[in-house]
Every structure is written in C-alpha cells, then in structure tokens.
Specification:
single chain, alpha/beta, nine-stranded mixed sheet, 10 helices, 15 strands, disordered N terminus
Length: 374
C-alpha cells in the first residue's frame, strides 16, 4: 500500500487520489468497475490485469492513463504503489486472490459472490479484521432505482406490514452463451443461483433480515446447458416475511421485477434499472446532459390495494434514481475516514448461507433450516 496515501491499517491519509488495481477486464471489469472507479472523486484507476491483448488495448483506449499487465500477480507485485484492489475476475479466483491481496496489505473490493461457501467468506472476513483492512463485496443492485424505491416505500410505511416480497431477474436466452458463468464444473461457481441469485438474496436480506428456512427448485432447461438456468427460492425471514425469488434465462414472458404485498397496500414494478444498459452503451455517471439512473415516467411502478396495475389500478410512484456511483463513493469514504464499507464480508457470508441452503434444498427436494447466528 502506498505510504504516500495510506497508513498500514488501510485508512487513507487525506491527500492524493487512492490508486486502484483492477484484476479482470471482462463484463464486470470493463462495464461496471472501471467506469465507476473512474467516475469517483478520490479514486484513480492505476493498473488493469487481463491476459487478453484485445482487452488490454480496450482498457488503454477507455482509460488512457492506466497501465495494463498480464497477470493478477503483476498487480499484487505493485502493492506498495496501490491503495485498493478490485477483483472482477472469475468466481473461482475470488478466495485465493482476496487472500493474497489482504496478505499483501491491500484493502479489497470483490465482485459477488465473495466465495463458494459462508465458511470461506467468514474466513476472509476474519483475515481482513486481523489485518485491519477493508473488505467489501460489490452488491451494486442495492443501488438499483426500483430497489431504492421499494426500500423507501417500506421505510415510509406506505405498504403497512410487508407480508410477501416477490423479486425476479428473468431473461429470455434460449441458447446458452457458454463461458465459465454457464459452466457445469462446480469449481467455476457457474449458474444463475450464484450469479443473479446473489443479488436477489442480498436484497431480501437487506430489507427483511435473517432467513430461518429455505425451499428451492433448480433446473437446467436449455439444450446444451450445464448449470442451473431456471431457479426459484422461497425464503422465510425470522420476522415473518416470505420472500419468493426467481432467476431464469428461459422466461418467454417476463414477470414484474418486484411485487411487494403489505397489510395496507401493494407495489408492482416492471422493467429493469437503466444503469447497466447505460454503462454498456458507453455512457458514464456525470456525463453532461445525462440524468444518471433516471427512467421515463412511463416505467413507474404502481402502489395500491384491491385492483390490478394492468387495468390501471393503483397510483404511479415516482422511481428514485439509480445510484451505482454511491458504492465506490462509500468505498472512498471508508478508506479515507476508517468507517464501515457499504457492503461487508459478514453480510456476504449471510447471503451465502442462504445460497448454500437453496442448493441443498433443490438437490434433496426439502425445506432447509438455517440456524440463528449468535
């Protein structure tokens, strides 16, 4: 870690930008992490690791000041000149690379999932605490426009006591795309349960707290597919709320992104947060003339009781803007001021306990209990 900008505990001194090493420049690295890091005051993208020459050229074209290297180790070798490591590498590398970065004295941001198991995540959390270093998981979907709106409605009491929470990430991709995300090799942590399911479980836990039981159905539907591509989870939270979560690549007609039912009213929201599409198109937060994370009024969800939104029931609710930049702004503050990260490794471990229980439930066809944590 740079002696000019940080102290040995991982809390940055108040001068100079924090220099970031990014490992991985595929979808996660190039579309999400690099643009958001570059758009964050106080952070500077310093080094990008990718073994693909075309991706190296892409990184230099998109971020002219960045240096590119071939291997993760080449980034770690620059530990004395860096203040943060970001892992946007394949899932199977998260545990060994996080361990190596923490042992090199560097704070770490890891794309989800942090690990394959809660036990591995807890071990990483303990190592980070022992070294006095920040360890955070990139759960950007907490800053989706629709999720922010649901959270506000719940906090304001507009729904009353929430009884059932329905959440979906559904797609229509009848042909597998291949690659490690769809690999059937258990070591790769492929499949939708650990991919999109990581987001949905994290959101449910953020809203309603610990889960006491999990029931899941998981299928491989598409010809040639190797990993789960159509999965359903039913969670019972300790507070009594039931969360029903769907992740699928085989949904010919998409359901609502959210349907939240309470004792006073319900809220239904269709469509997806616009930030990923904007990042894929090359737009960046802070671009002149762009209202970041804002969707058209026609996309607003509806709040009401006793009628269907499809027939005009309920009232349209303005959707809060999506705010992915808030994640890295919070990371920069945590490194500067020593405060907690926006998403903790302990929270990631809690989500992994649910994902592990879901995997077991689907395999054995039964409801799995999760013991309360002390």
């Amino acid at each position: 870690m740079s002696s000019e900008t940080s102290d040995p505990t991982g809390t940055a001194a108040p001068h100079g930008p924090l220099r970031v090493g990014l490992i991985g420049y595929g979808l996660a690295g190039s579309v999400f992490h690099a643009p958001l890091i570059a758009a964050t005051d106080g952070l500077r993208l310093d080094t990008v690791s990718t073994s693909d020459p075309a991706r190296q050229a892409q990184a230099r074209a998109e971020h002219p000041q960045v240096r590119t290297v071939d291997t993760p180790q080449a980034v770690l070798d620059r530990a004395a000149d860096l203040d943060l490591i970001v892992l946007a590498s394949p899932n199977k590398t998260h545990v060994p690379l996080t361990t190596a970065a923490l042992e090199a004295g560097l704070p770490v941001v890891v794309d989800k999932p942090l690990a394959a198991t809660a036990a591995e995540a807890e071990k990483l959390a303990a190592l980070a605490e022992e070294r006095g270093l920040l360890l955070s998981v990139f759960q950007n979907r907490r800053w989706d426009n629709d999720f922010r709106t649901v959270r506000r409605l719940i906090e304001d009491g507009a729904l009353g006591d929430v009884q059932r929470f329905e959440s979906r990430f559904e797609r229509w991709r009848p042909q597998p795309k291949g690659g490690w995300r769809e690999s059937g090799d258990p070591a790769e942590l492929g499949g939708l349960l650990y991919d999109l399911g990581s987001h949905l479980v994290d959101q449910a836990l953020t809203l309603f707290g610990p889960v006491v039981s999990v029931y899941a159905e998981s299928d491989i539907r598409r010809p040639g597919a190797e990993a789960d591509d159509d999965t359903f989870l039913a969670l019972t939270h300790a507070g009594g709320v039931r969360s029903h979560l769907w992740v699928s690549a085989t949904t010919a007609m998409l359901g609502p992104r959210f349907r939240v039912l309470g004792s006073r009213a319900g809220y239904v929201k269709h469509g997806l947060d616009p930030q990923e599409a904007a990042l894929r198109e090359g737009l960046r937060p802070g671009t002149e003339g762009t209202e970041w994370g804002v969707e058209p009024e026609s996309c607003r969800g509806r709040l009401g009781a006793g009628s269907s939104p499809q027939s005009g029931g309920g009232e349209p609710v303005p959707t809060l803007p999506g705010d992915y930049p808030a994640y890295y702004a919070a990371i920069a503050r945590a490194l500067r001021d020593g405060g907690p990260p926006p998403v903790t490794a302990t929270e990631a471990a809690a989500a992994l306990r649910v994902l592990e229980a879901a995997k077991l439930s689907a395999a054995e066809g039964r409801t799995v209990r999760i013991e309360a944590r002390p």
